[in-house]
Amino acid sequence: MATLRKAKILVDQLSETLQERKRIIEVIRLTPSENDNFELRQLVDRITRELGSLREQATNNDVNEYNELIDKYEKLLSGIDDESGLEISAYKVEKLTEKADTPKEVRFEEHKQMEMQPYDPFAEQTFKPYRDDEEEVTNNDPQDMPNHQMFAQHQQTMLEQDEELDHLHQSVQRQHSMGRAIHDELNDHIVLLDDLERQVDDSTFNLDRAQRRLNHFRKQAQENGSLVTIIVLTVILITLLVVLN
């Protein structure tokens, strides 16, 4: 069923959206924007409407597949964060139960009339031109299809292409938002690295200045070392002469 396949595509799209939203919140540590919350609400509302429409059209053969899709959808709803502003209870969808088979009606009058009519072996036969592979030609030749069937098939193809383009557009928008967030984060790191580089340059300049002062002091000490020794010895000699006399 086309509607069931469409609902599955939308539920898978919701799963991918929630995974990217979780990565933005937990890994990049950013808060989703109002535009992201609006797109999430639109997607959940669209899925709810599709499931409601599918519930009215589903048959007993679709009950199990439909209920499995409902379980997956409810599990995704329970994982939506509070910042989205969604009221989860408003988007709940009831599961399907198998419908009771309607009893078959026996039309005695119609059956009786058919028995009374004489049998004509050529009444319901229609003759067509002979073809080697009738089934293959019928399936592949669009000219044999009625106009309304061709139009319906064309519309279905266009709808599927529109859904794929919408999905691609939303994925590109999410990637764009993530790229902008990463760009802002890199700019912050660049500012921090510039500050660190400036501090390292200041520390290097101070160390070079201190090294130059130490070298100058060492040079002066080497040049004036002999003079200081002579003065000290002279003072000691004078002191000894005074003491001995």
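^ that was protein a. below is b, sequence first then the tokens
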Amino acid sequence: MAQLYYKYGTMNSGKSFEIIKVAHNYEEQGKQVLIFSPSFSARDGAELVGSRVGFERAAIPINEDTDLYESVQSYLTLPGTKRINCVLIDEAQFLKKHHILALTRVVDELNIPVMAFGLKNDFQNQLFEGSYNLLVQADKIEEIKTICWNCDRKATMVIRFLDGEPVNTGDQIQIGGNEDYKPVCRRCYYQAFRDVETTTD
């Protein structure tokens, strides 16, 4: 039976690269996949999944009002399409509750496995809407691990930087790259803000 998988990790953990690898493995066996990415994630453009190591794949954009169940079903009716073997979701933390519920229908009613990849918590250590609903709805949850930017511990949090200084205020969603965010362990996360307080005292 198909299942809904949620694979989460911090920045630089290789989530988008993992999507590209999974898609390649399916297609090498002659199987068909659909890759979706939120249009409101502007890092690589609405119709592109891009990893930081340079690999790219075309993606179907998800808008605020997209019905993912209807979208997948529409591809099943295209001439020459016998079966969709897997649905892959990039930047799943940016999805809304209705997107996640539609994915559960893809799994339960169409019997198509769905793998959603994304961040779990934001730079303030709060869950994104998509992350929260995936944690509730997913059949299987897996962490994609990477190491802390500052030490050798496992990274579990993300620090946002502004003009080179760590910040913990601002909008939850602000697209950025390595100059704006760093994956860190819990100890280094809190130490960074203690260091700022010491410097400003």
